[in-house]
Amino acid sequence: MHVKISNENNRLVEWGNFSVDEVRVAVTRYWVMAETGSSQFVIARSVACVASGSMCLFMGLTLFWVLFKEQHKLLPISQHRIYSNYKWSINCILAVQLVGVALGSIAPATRWFVAARFKSSDIGHRSFKNEFKVETYWTQKLVYWQERPLPLQIRSNVLRKLVHDAKRLLLNVCIGVQIVNILFSKLVLLVSAAFLKGFLFCFHQIKTTRRAWCYNSKESRTETELDYSGYVLLLEGESGLPRKTLKNICNEADKLIQRGRKKQLKNLKQLVMKSENFSGVREFDNNEVPRLKYSSQEPPNCWSLPVVTLTSVAVSLSNIADDHKLNQLLNAVSEGLYFVKLIEKSLDKNGDLTIIRHAAEVVWVGVELSKKWLDIDLQNASLGSGSHMEALQNLSGVAEKIVSDFTTRTVVDPLMKNPLNWPAKVIAARSMYRITQTILLAQKDNHSQTNEELFERLSVMVSDIFAACLTNLVSVIILKCHSNAIEEREESVRQAAILLGESEEVLEIIQKIDLPSLDPKKAGNIEEWRAFMELNPPATASASSNNGTANPHSNAEQVSVEIRG
After folding, report:
1. In whole angstroms, what is the distance from residue 12 CA to residue 559 CA?
2. Mean pLDDT, residues 539-561 taken together
3. Residue 17: beta bridge partners?
4. CA distance 393 to 284
């Protein structure tokens, strides 16, 4: 699964260098690899499955034939004499057996048909010798057991040699039986596929004759489709999957993406459209704001904490002209946090920001459900008498008091010198203090700004943070496709396909925004964004477009794939 999926242009799908169509193709190819490499699909097309299925079907038909010949024994007791000790209940027993055999034969017979159908497309393309070649994986384990030494501690050399020879003889017999079994299975598969190919050929000829115009138009469309055959995981000796089977697998990926499209988040889309240059990532926290006296270390930021804090401040603004705007912002933030949490969890592999994310979750629960920030009613008139300046000052004062009270109580606790050990409430208060002070600092020269104007400015800042964070969504989608565990691979790629469908419209908006020339491996960290944008403000920053001029640094750790057009 970690092989590169490449295209003739060798264009990497990574942070800052992607299109939605390319990501869709990449996910479809990973889906083909996951589906064809799943244990169920491999077993279904193996020769061993053919033998067991055909034997089960043969035994079922034999039972039905015997019962058909002896059907007079199944008539009512009034017409024939019953010779069984079970007397009249023999009819019920035979009926139950018939139902059990019929139901039990469905799955093996279906697997036999599937394997024969796969083989029917390959008949005539290989020599007779190659058809009956026994692949090494059928006897690999037995050969390994045969060659390895005995784990038993036997002192006598004669006895140890005798046991070893007996083991080799037994395993030789097992290897021979396995080879005979595989050869027989291949013969059954070849005969079954030959008959099935003849039947399918006749059926195809009839269908072509009756609907030639439909078939021809379908063929012309198929020629323009992308070829995914190079991404099918094949067993040793397999030549490939039938084209129709491969097309059905690709259609499954399209259906998963379509399922995600039905869940697209419209409010988030409208909010992200307000972003132009990600400047809000730098502006929400001004370095000129004085630090509180707590520790020599500052707690790091995550994407979600400033978002929920800025939204809390927006809710606190009284006399907003249009309440619909506030509800729309809350809905958009709720939708956006779904992606943000997924990105943070996927990229924060060491869990360094777990407590910071928890603080954001604690704040957001109160804001979303009851419009409260740490049990403080954000729309309460006590926060201010109609002036957003008073509301901001009150929120800043409450946040400062929470941090000061905490530091006073824990001044002698060495563990509290590390901000990552702070309670979630204190981390949230520190974020509120710095954000409100930043806003107040910016308001000194703009006293005439109305609540509506400040609300709109806060919305744009939230939009910028969301847009910057969601640039990492492609990396998360590709990362989900890189699952190593066979039992998790298919489900992981399934989730990636649905996630792509959910975020397609948002990704299309973001890829139109000029991205800073940030190192891709640092793009998942908001602090790295802020550090870069402090040195390169958006007005003068070196930006690159997503239309192919982006020049992100490549690195071994960056999640990336290449797409073939």
Report:
1. 10
2. 39
3. 14
4. 16
- Rounded to a whole number of angstroms, the CA Rg of the chain reads 34
Q: Which two tokens stand for residue 318?
A: 């009284």
- Spatial contact of 34 and 232, defined as CB atoms under 8 Å apart: no
Distance CA 220, CA 208 (A): 15
DSSP structure class, residue 544: E
What was the pLDDT predicted at 437?
A: 93
pLDDT at 271: 94
| Residue 278, phi then psi, degrees to nearest 5 | 65, 20
Of residues 30 and 98, more confidently modeled: 30
**What letter would DSSP give residue 552?**
P
If phi > 0 it is left, if psi is from -120 to 50 it is alpha, else beta; for residue 278 that is left
Residues 213, 218, 221: CA angle, nearest 5 degrees: 130
Rounded to whole angstroms, how far apart are CA atoms 57 and 258?
39
d(CA 527, CA 333): 21
In the predicted model, what is the mean pLDDT of the chain?
Answer: 79
CA 149 to chain CA mean position, Å: 44
Phi (first) and psi of residue 365, to 5 degrees? -60, -45
Select the more confidently predicted residue: 149 or 176.
176
Query: Which among 374, 273, 377 has a CA at the least distance from the CA of 328?
Result: 273
Task: Read off φ and ψ for residue 283, nearest 5 degrees.
Answer: -85, -20
pTM recorded for the entire structure: 0.77
* 389-413 tens-digit pLDDT: 888 888 999 999 999 888 888 777 7
| Half-sphere exposure (Cβ direction) of 501: Cα atoms closer than 13 Å | 18
Q: CB-based contacts of 413: which residues, under 8 Å, 6+ apart?
A: none
Q: What is the pLDDT of residues 228-273, one digit of tens each?
A: 888 888 877 777 777 888 888 999 999 999 999 998 889 999 999 9
Torsion of CA 549, 550, 553, 554, to 10 degrees: -80
Residue 526: both structure tokens together: 């908001």
Q: Which residues contact 489 (CB under 8 A, 6 or more apart)?
A: 1, 34, 37, 38, 483
Q: CA-to-CA distance for 38 and 261, rounded, in angstroms?
A: 26
Token pair belonging to 96: 């139950």
User: Alpha helices of 410-450 — where are they, by DSSP H?
Assistant: 424-443
On the question of pLDDT at 177 being above 60, the answer is yes
Length of the chain: 565
- Using CA atoms, how far residue 68 sits from 72, 86, 89, 196, 450, in Å, is 9, 20, 19, 27, 90
- Computed from CA positions of residues 323, 325, 331, 337, in that sequence, does the dihedral angle turn out positive or negative? negative
| pLDDT (0 to 100) of residue 208 | 67
Report the relative pairing of strands 11-13 and 376-377 from DSSP bridges: unpaired
Q: What are phi and psi of 372, to 5 degrees?
A: -125, 145
Residue 363 β-bridge partners: none
Please give the Cα distance from 79 to 75 (Å, whole number): 7
Q: How far is CA 374 from CA 61, 235, 308, 355, 371, in A?
A: 72, 59, 12, 16, 10
SS3 554: coil
DSSP per-residue codes, 362-417: HHHHHHHHHSEETTEETT-GGG-SS-HHHHHHHHHHHHHHHHHHHHHHTTT-GGGG
